[in-house]
Specification:
It is a single chain. The chain is built from 8 helices and 14 strands. It is an alpha/beta fold. The strands form 4 sheets. The chain has a 6-stranded parallel sheet with strand order 5-4-1-12-13-14. A 4-stranded parallel sheet has the order 6-7-8-11, sandwiched between helices. A two-stranded antiparallel ribbon has the order 2-3.
């Protein structure tokens, strides 16, 4: 029996600009059941506003407060600490950081910049980290499922490169960081053990959630590849075909 559900987006609800078969119906089912649910994503190329509008175009209407992103968590952290960020992110994501301090300590913030990762920008980040800037990673995913159906490099390899060069370890704000799951869980009325996380990333979604005390349901869509669950310290609570099967299992 679960009392709340966290749902990943890319690879679970949609791939590219199309909803996966049965995913919208599954979300309608859980909405009708009355079980609280939120969306939690490591997507760092799009601002939260655009993710919400893109979901609406797919036929899924949500409010921003029901969507947890690493950029939102990073912005709150920077504002609390009065830090000035060097943003190594996709230009579209910069709107999520508007209005932060322009005077204060420094922080390097690394997300999935895609084609905007350049040597000069990474070297600038490297030097700032060496001189004491906070080192924040919006996520540390190894890869993501690209529009052509193949896996592409995510932010993780670039974060790892900066860690190797600087000798400093980044503070990861997105999945699988326990703090990210904790914030999402706190938006519900139940403890972590009563919350299920549904995702297609065995390491970040399911492994991270279970390490934070949640149940982990791995779906065989999106970036999932056969046998990935075998590499986790603990087997997922369930491995199912897709989001529809996951919701069916939780509601049965």
């Amino acid at each position: 029996m679960v009392r709340g559900v966290l749902i990943d987006l890319d690879g679970v609800v949609y791939v590219g600009n199309r909803a996966l078969p049965g995913s919208l119906k599954a979300i309608r089912r859980i909405r009708e059941s009355g079980i609280p649910f939120k969306f939690i994503t490591n997507t760092t190329r799009r601002p939260r506003r655009r993710i919400v509008s893109d979901l609406a175009r797919l036929g899924l209407s949500i409010v921003a407060e029901d969507l947890f992103t690493p950029a939102a968590l990073a912005r709150d952290f920077l504002a609390r600490q009065n830090l000035v960020p060097l943003l190594i992110v996709h230009p579209d994501l910069r709107e999520d950081f508007i209005g932060l301090a322009t005077n204060g300590g420094e922080a390097v913030v690394v997300g999935d910049a895609g084609a905007f990762f350049t040597y000069d920008l990474l070297n600038q980040a490297y030097r700032k980290i060496l001189h004491g800037a906070e080192f924040l990673a919006l996520a540390k995913n190894r890869n993501f499922l690209d529009h052509d159906g193949e896996l592409s490099l995510d932010a993780g390899p670039f974060v790892a490169g900066l860690e190797y060069a600087s000798g400093k370890v980044a503070t990861v704000l997105g999945k699988p960081a326990p703090a990210f799951f904790k914030i999402a869980v706190e938006s519900m009325v139940s403890g972590a053990e009563d919350i299920a996380m549904i995702g297609d990333d065995a390491e970040a979604d399911v492994g991270g959630a279970m390490a934070a005390g949640l149940q982990g349901i791995l779906v065989q869509t999106g970036k999932y590849r056969p046998g990935q669950e075998m590499n986790l310290p603990e087997r997922p609570t369930h491995v199912v075909q897709n989001l529809g099967a996951a919701i069916e299992l939780l509601l049965s």
